[in-house]
Amino acid sequence: MDNSGIYVGLDIGTTSIKVIVAERVKGQMNVIGVGSERSNGLSRGVIVDIDKAASAIQSAVRQAEEKASIEIKKIIAGVPANLVKIERCRGMIAVADESKEINNEDVQNVAAAALVQSLPPEREVLDVIPDEFVVDGFDGIKDPRGMVGVRLEMHGTLFTGPKTIIHNTRKAIEKAGLQIEQIVIAPLALSSLVLNDGEQDFGSIIVDMGGGQTTAAVIHDHQLKYTYVDQEGGQYITKDISVVLNTSIENAEKLKRDYGNADADQTSDEDEFPVEVVGQSTPTQISEQYLAEIIEARLDQIFNKLKQHLDDIHALDLPGGVVLTGGVAALPGITDLASQLFGTRVRVFTPNQMGLRHPSFDEALAVIKYQAALSEVALLVKSALTGDTRASVALDFSEPAPSQPATGSQAAPAQPAPTKTTKKQPAKQQHPDQESGLSRFKNFFNHFFD
Predict the structure, then answer these.
(1) pTM, entire model
(2) By percentage, how much of the chain surpasses pLDDT 90?
(3) Is 118 left (phi over 0), alpha (psi -120 to 50) or beta?
């Protein structure tokens, strides 16, 4: 499917808010604008002050608009994996058409049937992904449209999250004057960016090291199987430096960025730098090794907690190893430290686009790539989240797709489509659906996560 057009990704992080504008032409994604603003109104990855967060989002969007020379109206937003639950879902319908040929409406109807879940009042459906369709008992079908059958089933994966987190995210974005094209679970989007096909198939672990929290996500068989969130991140490292060296938070953050190293063995106690100490008129000389020891102590604690949870499900046995993303992953020496503690191969993913060569931009870029890669069938299934079963994937993007508010626990993002701006109109969508050829070990680790 040719998903050409303009896409805008939004990453609402604890320490910074990032906006990336990209243009997809003939399968090539080109970044044309970037905005970055210091976060306000967030704590541990969650919006706690909607007005402050909305103001920061507006500022980041304005920066991206100026650089891209477009007006941004719609965005694709990533949400953290805080308390996300992964469940199986299944729906079944009778094919409605007299010819018994399965069409778009049948796919939407079977997806709507799969969404009929008994959820606690405090939870809400975030996303639904079709794993396979079954036509009259024949399974393993990725796209049933055009086939003839009497009974259509869909087996999928349902993601639910706390209503408070989802509502606050939506409210802050809307208050910033933007429309939400799609809400994407951050680890799910990151897998499409930082992992290759084989790593997604045979299994890998993504560790997103943000300022307010650290998230471990297990990807296997191209699916998000498990998430764990540790409420410690880069801010904790900064606070440790501030307390130990008796310096301000601002100075501590600068020291971490300018002189920090995650592995004390890679530093020297002879290389020193000045530190402004509270209550002293002259700076104190501190060695790089001493600073690295402070940083390493906190990272040891974070990684060991992650390892404990990952060992419980044998995730570290997956052949893809660990991929580090997020701003903290930019610390020198972090791959060596993580490799020692996890006992597996570790690498850091850094975008190769000009102006984005830092792991902190991974999530904003990932939500764009994730949305652009969605197939027509996936878009049809997601449209069932709006409750509008009359919708069609063959949309005219010159006007926003109509959406109807859902009720109860199934309130969800509007129908997904490439983000509309004033620059150009996406080309007509077409449908190729490709399956991974790497499937010979797909069931090997299933008992760890089912």
Answers:
(1) 0.82
(2) 72
(3) beta
